[in-house]
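Narrative of activities, Objective 1.

The group set out to show that a structural description can be obtained from nothing but a protein's sequence at a throughput compatible with the screening campaign. Below is one input-output pair from the validation batch, recorded exactly as produced.
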Amino acid sequence: MSPTIALIAHDGKKDDMVRFARAHYDLLAAFQLIGTGTTGERITQATGLPVTRMLSGPMGGDAQIAARVAEGQVAAVIFLVDPLYAHPHEPDIQGLLRICNVYNVPLATNEATGLAVLRYVTIDGGR
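Output recorded for this entry:
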């Protein structure tokens, strides 16, 4: 089975994530993809890439993905963060970031680092 990449985007970054997924379709197609609710749905609708959807971020989707990271099921996380707005589920977001650091899982928070992480995982094979 191919490695799993998690795709998450704050509301103000969902269009950017869709554009990112379209631009890097060939790289993303080589992976199992998971995402938070709306982000995953938008990526699938725009690209046809299959994305296993978790709950939406505010409803626990970030925590679900963090659990999969802790279980060793996720090779990388691409989380397009909107740094200009407060988010009511900030503790879950910080928890996901902490878990990625604890388990040494690559985490990108913008498109530039997203592409770098995607290329790294493509070359490295997800560890």
